[in-house]
Amino acid sequence: MQTKLAVQFRKSRTTVTAFERLKLCKRCGAYSVLFDNSCKSCGARDKFIPVTEYASALNRILPWAEAFGAIALVLLAVVFADTLAQMAAAAAGGAVLLFLLFLLRKTYKPYAESNRLHKLLVDHTPEILRGLRADLQEALEDMEADKPKEAYEKLREIGHFLRGDSIKARKVVCLNRFFIRKDMDLELEQLIPASFSEPFVLYLWEAVKVNKRLVRRGVLDYVLAYRYHIASMPHGKDILALIAGAAVRMKSYVKMYPYFIVDYLDELPKERFHRLCMLMAATPAEERTILYDKCKELARSRYGFDPDFQNMF
Ligand SMILES: [Zn+2]
Q1: How far is the CA of 130 from the centre of ligand 1 (A)?
Q2: What pLDDT does residue 174 have?
Q3: Does residue 271 lie within any of the structural domains?
Q4: How many structural domains does the chain have?
Q5: What transmembrane ranges does the database entry give (predicted)?
Q6: How far is residue 45's CA from residue 118's CA, in Å, rounded to a whole number?
Q7: Is residue 43 part of a domain?
Q8: How far is the centre of ligand 1, averaged over its atoms, from the C-alpha of 232 (Å)?
Q9: What is the domain range of residue 277?
Q10: Is the sign of the CA dihedral 271, 276, 277, 279 positive or negative?
Q11: pLDDT > 90 in the chain, percent
Q12: 257 and 147 in one domain?
């Protein structure tokens, strides 16, 4: 068995949308989402700019190009006019055209700018994919070179765009090499695979041990779908009990998964069971399920003399 590593992840920046993480090389146009400042494609250093900045530059340049084009048209009309009257008409028509252009630009500026970014991303999709594949190749080389921390940090960035099971599985392989601590910025729901995966469940166990908040609906649905696979794993029952205990955190989960939680009542630590009993006691009579009766029964038989459980039901 490989020894686990104590690691500190590099901070990953938070963005509203994934595409804000994209950067492109000003020299060759190659894309990347990694932190390295040198371009893998052309070797240039410090030539990357965020794609949003690139689109903003286009937004500054293109309207001027449009305006110069319109002015050139007006000047041509004036120059080729045969008479003074035609010249005056061309100049007046040109002035109206320029004014309309100015008004239209002012009204539609925000739409034009977001449309330009959208079009840029669509037009550059092949280059973006090529860049992501090159980034992925780098992460895989790190894995082969036994550098799981570096590989994971790269996969985490790439994972904002490529969300397939193979990326998730590779992230899990890396994560299972680390000591998982509470202070780590951990992901869980984003790693849920499409089918049963023992390495994922082992990571889930370690992650939920340090942070119960990682258990959300997607995780609960996965655990329920594969509960018999999980039960057959070493420590399977402990894993399921841990997840049931974490589900008690939210009233809505208790309401949604009562038949799962009821199976692990005996294994719940006192603090988790106490919280569940508080929720049950506050449940209106018409919404009570078997979970209510079992909690009441266990509270009496196991904690009958415990002051924390007195007069609860
Ligand atoms: Zn380049």
Answers
A1: 13
A2: 97
A3: yes
A4: 2
A5: 61-81, 87-104
A6: 27
A7: yes
A8: 51
A9: 193-313
A10: positive
A11: 69
A12: no
